[in-house]
Amino acid sequence: MIGAPRAAAGALREGTSPARRTARFADSSTLPCHTMPLDTHTRVAAFLHIVLASLALLVLLAIGAIVGAFGALGPSWGVEPEVASWVGGVGLFIVLMFVLAAITEIVGAVLLLRGSDFGRVMTIVFSGLHLLNIPLGTAVGAYSLWALLREVPSTGRPGSAVRMEPTQPS
Description:
Distance between the termini: 64 Å
Number of strands: 0
Helix content: 55-70%
Structural class: mainly alpha
Shape: elongated
Number of helices: 6
Strand content: under 5%
Largest sheet: none
């Protein structure tokens, strides 16, 4: 609370109270909007990428444990110590690169959920890479590419998307 008197003094000099300045910034209409519109398909694509990357992290954890155990315990199983350490080291390096890719995919999907254009680009790149991951990754990659590369209907306001509701048959 040491800075509270300074903040109050600054508010008096500016002619506004701290609560009024906070309320002014809390109003989203005064802040510039640099986010893209999110519709249902974009959100689903982001969640699918988070789920796939999380599953990949679980699989990589198991593979990393196996490779690390081989590197550490290989000589006791009759494997040459140099070969065991080489396989363990190179294997763990490869596993760590895939872990880094999975974490990057999760970050991109979270950024996409927050409306970031950079998150959209990252998710499009990972969608293309998932096309090679047959069969589940191909389905998620194709759906994500469709959801992210199509034109989203808008209401005319920047940063908003039309909510598409099913119509009742008459």
